[in-house]
Amino acid sequence: NAGVTQTPKFQVLKTGQSMTLQCAQDMNHEYMSWYRQDPGMGLRLIHYSVGAGITDQGEVPNGYNVSRSTTEDFPLRLLSAAPSQTSVYFCASSYGDLPTYEQYFGPGTRLTVT
Amino acid sequence: KNEVEQSPQNLTAQEGEFITINCSYSVGISALHWLQQHPGGGIVSLFMLSSGKKKHGRLIATINIQEKHSSLHITASHPRDSAVYICAVPNFGNEKLTFGTGTRLTIIP
Questions:
Q1: Residue A100 has pLDDT above 80, yes or no
Q2: Distance (Å, rounded) from C-alpha B70 to C-alpha B54?
Q3: Are the C-beta atoms of A66 and A1 separated by less than 8 Å?
Q4: What is the DSSP secondary structure assignment for residue A52, as one 8-state letter?
């Protein structure tokens, strides 16, 4: 099993550009989520999904869109990149809803917006 | 919202020392997660516990539900234990986790 994969590993965007961060898991997990990690702050939830076709907002959803058309994939779209979105992004998955199940994290995507 | 505090923020110790990292939270929970973030950035789940104690190798996690406090202990610490250790607790009706800011541990040979 590859676990949770994320692409790209690194990305530099100019302000206003859009892009999609890819996340995929091969563990048949229902629950998937996107976090951002900024210096001095804990991981913060952007969006999450409890199954295919179902998504919901987390703590910091503004400027991001998600969709979940399959169990395996959960892409995160930046609509119009801003310097405030410079961060490290982690995708995670778990078998069921939190807090009962262990989370598996992807390797992260380091995004810089200039 | 469940507030999470970890202490210390940074910890440097000699190889072989016994390490304790603390996590306190403000609202009663059903389970707490301990995670490890390697220097390269990857995050792995270490423990998920709802009561008592769990042990995995040299790592021990304890939780006191009444006091809203958990500790992560490392026995016979080794330089490869150098990492950021993060605790997380459920929030907003158990659908989401709130993460602490982490404890950066450095073990010197």
A1: no
A2: 11
A3: no
A4: T
pLDDT in tens, B33-91: 999 999 888 999 999 998 999 999 999 999 998 999 999 999 999 999 999 999 999 87
Distance of alpha carbon A24 from the chain centroid: 10
**Which residues 32-91 on chain A approach chain B with CB closer than 8 angstroms?**
35, 40-45, 48, 50, 56, 58-59, 88, 90
Dihedral over Cα of B54, B92, A35, B98: its sign: negative
Find how far residue B21's CA is from the centre of its chain.
Answer: 6
Q: Are A55 and A71 in contact (CB under 8 A)?
A: no
Query: Chain A partners of B93 at a C-beta cutoff of 8 Å?
Result: none
Per-residue pLDDT at B2: 78
H runs (alpha helix) in A19-84: none
Interface of A with B in 2-21 (CB under 8 A): none
Positive or negative torsion for Cα A57, A62, A64, A65: positive
CB-nearest partner of B33 from A44, A59, A99: A99
Contact A60, A76 (CB under 8 A): no
| Torsional sign, CA A74, A79, A80, A85 | negative
Q: What is the mean pLDDT of residues A81-88?
A: 97
Cα distance between residue B76 and residue B99, in whole Å = 27
CA distances from B82 to A88, B39, B85 (A): 20, 8, 9
